[in-house]
Protein backbone atom coordinates (compact mmCIF):
# COMPACT_ATOMS: atom_id res chain seq x y z
CA UNK A 1 0.00 0.00 0.00
CA UNK A 2 1.15 3.55 -0.74
CA UNK A 3 0.41 5.66 2.35
CA UNK A 4 0.67 9.34 3.21
CA UNK A 5 1.36 10.01 6.89
CA UNK A 6 0.99 13.45 8.44
CA UNK A 7 2.66 14.36 11.70
CA UNK A 8 5.52 12.09 10.70
CA UNK A 9 8.04 13.81 12.98
CA UNK A 10 5.84 13.51 16.08
CA UNK A 11 5.96 10.88 18.81
CA UNK A 12 3.30 8.65 17.25
CA UNK A 13 3.87 9.55 13.61
CA UNK A 14 7.63 8.97 13.53
CA UNK A 15 7.38 5.49 15.01
CA UNK A 16 4.37 4.60 12.89
CA UNK A 17 6.12 5.75 9.71
CA UNK A 18 9.02 3.37 10.31
CA UNK A 19 6.81 0.42 11.27
CA UNK A 20 4.60 0.70 8.20
CA UNK A 21 7.70 0.89 6.00
CA UNK A 22 9.14 -2.15 7.77
CA UNK A 23 6.04 -4.19 6.97
CA UNK A 24 6.41 -3.37 3.27
CA UNK A 25 4.25 -0.30 2.67
CA UNK A 26 5.56 2.65 0.71
CA UNK A 27 5.27 5.65 3.00
CA UNK A 28 5.18 9.29 2.02
CA UNK A 29 5.84 11.39 5.11
CA UNK A 30 4.41 14.91 5.11
CA UNK A 31 6.82 17.21 6.95
CA UNK A 32 7.12 20.96 7.11
CA UNK A 33 10.91 20.89 6.75
CA UNK A 34 12.46 17.80 5.11
CA UNK A 35 15.93 18.99 6.15
CA UNK A 36 14.94 18.38 9.79
CA UNK A 37 13.41 14.95 9.14
CA UNK A 38 16.46 13.09 7.87
CA UNK A 39 16.10 10.49 10.65
CA UNK A 40 12.98 9.23 8.86
CA UNK A 41 14.64 8.52 5.54
CA UNK A 42 14.68 4.91 4.49
CA UNK A 43 14.30 2.62 1.53
CA UNK A 44 10.51 2.78 1.58
CA UNK A 45 10.04 6.27 3.04
CA UNK A 46 9.71 9.41 0.93
CA UNK A 47 9.79 12.85 2.53
CA UNK A 48 7.54 15.52 1.06
CA UNK A 49 7.28 19.14 2.19
CA UNK A 50 3.84 20.38 3.10
CA UNK A 51 1.55 21.95 5.64
CA UNK A 52 -2.06 21.28 6.63
CA UNK A 53 -2.87 24.93 6.01
CA UNK A 54 -1.26 24.98 2.55
CA UNK A 55 -3.84 23.40 0.25
CA UNK A 56 -1.52 23.35 -2.76
CA UNK A 57 1.05 21.30 -0.85
CA UNK A 58 -1.65 18.86 0.24
CA UNK A 59 -2.86 18.31 -3.31
CA UNK A 60 0.66 17.27 -4.29
CA UNK A 61 1.14 15.14 -1.17
CA UNK A 62 -1.96 12.96 -1.67
CA UNK A 63 -1.43 12.41 -5.39
CA UNK A 64 -1.11 8.70 -6.15
CA UNK A 65 -1.51 7.35 -2.62
CA UNK A 66 -3.92 4.59 -1.58
CA UNK A 67 -4.51 5.78 1.97
CA UNK A 68 -3.91 8.68 4.34
CA UNK A 69 -3.02 8.26 8.00
CA UNK A 70 -3.58 11.63 9.63
CA UNK A 71 -1.54 11.93 12.84
CA UNK A 72 -0.66 15.63 12.79
CA UNK A 73 -2.20 17.75 15.54
CA UNK A 74 -1.53 20.72 17.77
CA UNK A 75 -1.72 19.32 21.31
CA UNK A 76 -0.09 20.71 24.45
CA UNK A 77 0.11 24.47 24.63
CA UNK A 78 -2.41 25.11 21.86
CA UNK A 79 -4.87 27.96 22.31
CA UNK A 80 -8.49 27.19 21.33
CA UNK A 81 -7.90 29.11 18.11
CA UNK A 82 -4.74 27.19 17.26
CA UNK A 83 -6.38 23.85 18.02
CA UNK A 84 -9.32 24.70 15.79
CA UNK A 85 -7.13 25.95 12.95
CA UNK A 86 -4.72 23.01 12.87
CA UNK A 87 -6.78 20.10 14.13
CA UNK A 88 -10.18 20.90 12.66
CA UNK A 89 -9.57 23.14 9.63
CA UNK A 90 -6.34 21.32 8.75
CA UNK A 91 -8.20 18.01 8.73
CA UNK A 92 -10.87 19.50 6.50
CA UNK A 93 -8.22 20.65 4.03
CA UNK A 94 -6.51 17.26 4.01
CA UNK A 95 -9.74 15.30 3.55
CA UNK A 96 -10.79 17.58 0.70
CA UNK A 97 -7.46 16.98 -1.04
CA UNK A 98 -7.78 13.22 -0.48
CA UNK A 99 -11.28 13.14 -1.97
CA UNK A 100 -10.17 15.14 -5.00
CA UNK A 101 -7.33 12.67 -5.55
CA UNK A 102 -9.64 9.62 -5.17
CA UNK A 103 -7.74 8.30 -2.16
CA UNK A 104 -9.41 5.07 -1.00
CA UNK A 105 -8.98 5.18 2.76
CA UNK A 106 -8.53 7.84 5.44
CA UNK A 107 -7.43 6.85 8.96
CA UNK A 108 -7.80 9.68 11.46
CA UNK A 109 -5.79 9.53 14.68
CA UNK A 110 -7.97 10.98 17.41
CA UNK A 111 -7.87 10.89 21.20
CA UNK A 112 -9.70 9.17 24.04
CA UNK A 113 -9.79 12.58 25.73
CA UNK A 114 -12.98 13.23 23.71
CA UNK A 115 -14.91 11.28 26.38
CA UNK A 116 -14.17 13.84 29.07
CA UNK A 117 -14.69 12.87 32.68
CA UNK A 118 -16.85 9.84 33.50
CA UNK A 119 -15.53 8.78 36.91
CA UNK A 120 -13.23 6.14 35.45
CA UNK A 121 -15.95 4.05 33.81
CA UNK A 122 -15.26 2.26 30.53
CA UNK A 123 -16.02 4.55 27.60
CA UNK A 124 -17.38 2.97 24.42
CA UNK A 125 -17.12 4.41 20.95
CA UNK A 126 -20.85 5.14 20.81
CA UNK A 127 -20.91 6.96 24.15
CA UNK A 128 -21.54 10.69 24.19
CA UNK A 129 -18.44 12.89 24.20
CA UNK A 130 -18.04 15.37 27.02
CA UNK A 131 -14.67 17.02 26.51
CA UNK A 132 -14.05 20.55 27.77
CA UNK A 133 -10.46 21.28 26.68
CA UNK A 134 -9.59 22.81 23.30
CA UNK A 135 -7.58 19.86 22.00
CA UNK A 136 -10.23 17.12 22.35
CA UNK A 137 -12.98 19.53 21.28
CA UNK A 138 -11.11 20.17 18.02
CA UNK A 139 -10.71 16.41 17.55
CA UNK A 140 -14.45 15.85 18.07
CA UNK A 141 -15.21 18.47 15.43
CA UNK A 142 -12.77 16.85 12.98
CA UNK A 143 -14.23 13.39 13.63
CA UNK A 144 -17.75 14.61 12.95
CA UNK A 145 -16.72 16.29 9.72
CA UNK A 146 -14.94 13.18 8.44
CA UNK A 147 -17.67 10.73 9.39
CA UNK A 148 -20.25 12.85 7.57
CA UNK A 149 -18.44 12.51 4.24
CA UNK A 150 -20.10 10.09 1.84
CA UNK A 151 -17.26 9.43 -0.58
CA UNK A 152 -14.20 8.73 1.56
CA UNK A 153 -13.62 5.50 3.50
CA UNK A 154 -13.03 6.98 6.96
CA UNK A 155 -11.86 5.09 10.06
CA UNK A 156 -11.14 6.87 13.37
CA UNK A 157 -8.67 5.58 15.97
CA UNK A 158 -8.92 7.07 19.46
CA UNK A 159 -5.66 6.80 21.38
CA UNK A 160 -5.10 6.82 25.14
CA UNK A 161 -1.76 7.79 26.69
CA UNK A 162 0.87 6.30 24.33
CA UNK A 163 4.26 5.12 25.60
CA UNK A 164 7.22 2.87 24.75
CA UNK A 165 9.96 2.72 22.12
CA UNK A 166 12.13 5.07 24.14
CA UNK A 167 9.46 7.76 24.07
CA UNK A 168 9.87 10.00 27.16
CA UNK A 169 6.12 10.66 27.21
CA UNK A 170 5.62 9.34 30.75
CA UNK A 171 8.45 11.42 32.21
CA UNK A 172 7.32 14.51 30.32
CA UNK A 173 3.74 14.18 31.59
CA UNK A 174 4.65 13.83 35.28
CA UNK A 175 4.65 17.59 36.03
CA UNK A 176 1.18 17.99 34.49
CA UNK A 177 -0.17 15.03 36.49
CA UNK A 178 1.63 15.76 39.76
CA UNK A 179 -1.54 17.05 41.42
CA UNK A 180 -3.82 14.25 40.21
CA UNK A 181 -5.14 11.54 42.49
CA UNK A 182 -2.67 8.64 42.90
CA UNK A 183 -5.56 6.17 42.61
CA UNK A 184 -6.86 7.56 39.31
CA UNK A 185 -6.48 5.02 36.50
CA UNK A 186 -4.59 5.87 33.33
CA UNK A 187 -5.41 4.09 30.06
CA UNK A 188 -2.29 3.23 28.05
CA UNK A 189 -1.20 1.82 24.71
CA UNK A 190 2.32 0.96 23.56
CA UNK A 191 3.59 2.40 20.26
CA UNK A 192 3.91 -1.15 18.93
CA UNK A 193 0.19 -1.65 19.43
CA UNK A 194 -0.76 1.71 17.95
CA UNK A 195 1.05 0.60 14.79
CA UNK A 196 -0.69 -2.78 14.90
CA UNK A 197 -4.10 -1.10 15.19
CA UNK A 198 -3.41 1.27 12.29
CA UNK A 199 -2.17 -1.58 10.10
CA UNK A 200 -5.34 -3.56 10.80
CA UNK A 201 -7.50 -0.56 9.95
CA UNK A 202 -5.61 -0.03 6.70
CA UNK A 203 -5.90 -3.66 5.65
CA UNK A 204 -9.51 -4.40 6.57
CA UNK A 205 -12.04 -3.95 3.76
CA UNK A 206 -14.84 -3.36 6.27
CA UNK A 207 -16.36 -1.91 8.33
CA UNK A 208 -16.06 1.68 7.13
CA UNK A 209 -17.06 4.92 8.86
CA UNK A 210 -16.11 3.27 12.13
CA UNK A 211 -14.58 4.57 15.36
CA UNK A 212 -12.18 2.38 17.34
CA UNK A 213 -10.62 2.74 20.76
CA UNK A 214 -7.22 1.12 21.11
CA UNK A 215 -6.04 0.42 24.65
CA UNK A 216 -4.09 -2.03 26.80
CA UNK A 217 -5.90 -4.72 28.77
CA UNK A 218 -5.20 -2.91 32.02
CA UNK A 219 -5.20 0.74 33.08
CA UNK A 220 -2.74 1.17 35.98
CA UNK A 221 -3.16 3.72 38.74
CA UNK A 222 -1.17 6.91 38.41
CA UNK A 223 0.86 5.79 41.41
CA UNK A 224 1.92 2.70 39.45
CA UNK A 225 2.63 4.75 36.33
CA UNK A 226 4.86 7.15 38.27
CA UNK A 227 6.63 4.23 39.94
CA UNK A 228 7.42 2.78 36.51
CA UNK A 229 9.83 5.68 35.94
CA UNK A 230 11.08 5.82 39.53
CA UNK A 231 8.96 8.78 40.61
CA UNK A 232 6.97 9.18 43.85
CA UNK A 233 3.18 9.11 43.42
CA UNK A 234 1.20 12.24 42.57
CA UNK A 235 0.06 14.21 45.60
CA UNK A 236 -3.64 14.63 44.83
CA UNK A 237 -3.54 18.41 45.29
CA UNK A 238 -5.43 19.05 42.05
CA UNK A 239 -7.53 15.93 41.66
CA UNK A 240 -10.43 17.90 40.15
CA UNK A 241 -8.25 18.77 37.16
CA UNK A 242 -7.29 15.12 36.79
CA UNK A 243 -10.91 14.15 36.24
CA UNK A 244 -10.73 15.51 32.68
CA UNK A 245 -8.45 12.53 31.97
CA UNK A 246 -10.17 9.78 33.96
CA UNK A 247 -12.18 7.98 31.25
CA UNK A 248 -10.85 4.51 30.40
CA UNK A 249 -11.66 3.50 26.79
CA UNK A 250 -13.40 0.19 26.15
CA UNK A 251 -11.20 -1.74 23.70
CA UNK A 252 -13.57 -4.56 22.77
CA UNK A 253 -14.71 -3.28 19.38
CA UNK A 254 -11.30 -3.32 17.66
CA UNK A 255 -10.70 -6.81 19.05
CA UNK A 256 -14.03 -8.11 17.78
CA UNK A 257 -14.01 -6.35 14.38
CA UNK A 258 -10.34 -6.52 13.44
CA UNK A 259 -8.79 -9.22 15.60
CA UNK A 260 -6.53 -6.80 17.49
CA UNK A 261 -4.64 -8.27 20.44
CA UNK A 262 -2.10 -6.10 22.27
CA UNK A 263 1.52 -7.18 22.03
CA UNK A 264 1.94 -5.60 25.48
CA UNK A 265 -1.35 -6.18 27.33
CA UNK A 266 -0.10 -4.27 30.37
CA UNK A 267 2.59 -1.78 31.32
CA UNK A 268 4.19 -4.51 33.42
CA UNK A 269 4.55 -6.70 30.32
CA UNK A 270 6.43 -3.94 28.50
CA UNK A 271 8.64 -3.24 31.51
CA UNK A 272 9.47 -6.93 31.87
CA UNK A 273 11.15 -7.00 28.44
CA UNK A 274 12.63 -3.49 28.58
CA UNK A 275 10.19 -2.06 26.03
CA UNK A 276 9.27 1.10 27.94
Q: Main beta sheet, described? A: 7 strands, parallel
Which parts are unreliable, with pLDDT below 50 for 5 consecutive residues or more? none
Tally of contiguous helical segments: 10
Spatial arrangement of strands, main beta sheet: 3-2-1-4-5-7-10
What is the N-to-C order of secondary-structure elements (H for helix, E for strand)?
EHEEHEHEEHEEHEHEHHEHH
Structural class of the secondary elements?
alpha/beta
CATH class: Alpha Beta
Which percent range fits the helix content? 25-40%
Q: Do you know the CATH topology?
A: Rossmann fold
CATH architecture level-2 label: 3-Layer(aba) Sandwich
- The number of distinct β-strands equals 11
Sheet-strand content, in percent, reads 15-25%
CATH superfamily: NAD(P)-binding Rossmann-like Domain
**Rounded mean pLDDT score:** 95
Radius of gyration, taken over Cα atoms and rounded to an integer in Å: 18 Å
- Number of folding domains? 1
The coarse overall form would be: globular
In angstroms, what separates the terminal alpha carbons? 29 Å
Report on the architecture of this protein.
The protein is an alpha/beta fold and 276 residues long. The protein has a single domain, classed as Rossmann fold (3-Layer(aba) Sandwich), CATH 3.40.50. The chain is 37% helix and 17% strand. The chain contains 10 helices and 11 strands. It has a 7-stranded parallel sheet, sandwiched between helices. Strands 6-11 form a two-stranded parallel sheet. Helix 2 packs across helix 3. The longest helix is centred in the first third of the chain and has 21 residues. The protein starts with a strand and ends with a helix.
Amino acid sequence: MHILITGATGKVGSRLTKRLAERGDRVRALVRDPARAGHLQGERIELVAGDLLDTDSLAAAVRGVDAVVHCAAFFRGATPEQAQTVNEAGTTHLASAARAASVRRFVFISTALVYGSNDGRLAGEDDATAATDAYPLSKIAAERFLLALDDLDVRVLRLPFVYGDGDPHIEEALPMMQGFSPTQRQALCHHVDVAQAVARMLDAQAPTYRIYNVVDDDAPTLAALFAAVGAPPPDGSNSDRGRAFDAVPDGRRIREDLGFRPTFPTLADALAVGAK
